[in-house]
Specification:
Distance between the termini: 25 Å
Order of helices and strands: EEHEEEE
Number of helices: 1
Strand order of the largest sheet: 2-1-3-5
Largest sheet: 4 strands, parallel
Length: 97
């Protein structure tokens, strides 16, 4: 298992490799978030800073999602410190989620 720290705007310190909260990966835009999910391993753990994260999610035979066993830990569900995952650019109701 490898931990990955994510932030909508990226961390404050270089390199922004997701190795700790101050070096969080930029993950707010859908292109960034989807690229991160493509490269994860089984049983990785994602820690989300407060904010909104866009993703295009899964699409049959085109886009995968996080691998089995992955954990996703947000900062909360209420108030100013909440984490929100937003599904964007979905066109087909039966082959995307």
């Amino acid at each position: 298992m490898q931990p990955h720290w994510l932030s909508p705007t990226g961390g404050y310190l270089e390199p922004r490799d997701g190795s700790n909260p101050l070096q969080a990966l930029l993950a707010g835009p859908a292109d960034a978030m989807d690229a991160i999910v493509k490269t994860n391993n089984y049983y990785d753990c994602f820690f989300y800073a407060p904010g909104e994260y866009e993703t295009r999610g899964w699409k049959y035979q085109e886009r995968s999602t996080a691998n089995p066993g992955c954990k996703h830990v947000g900062s909360g569900s209420e108030g100013s410190a909440k984490t929100t995952l937003k599904l964007v650019d979905i066109w087909q109701s039966f082959s995307e989620e």
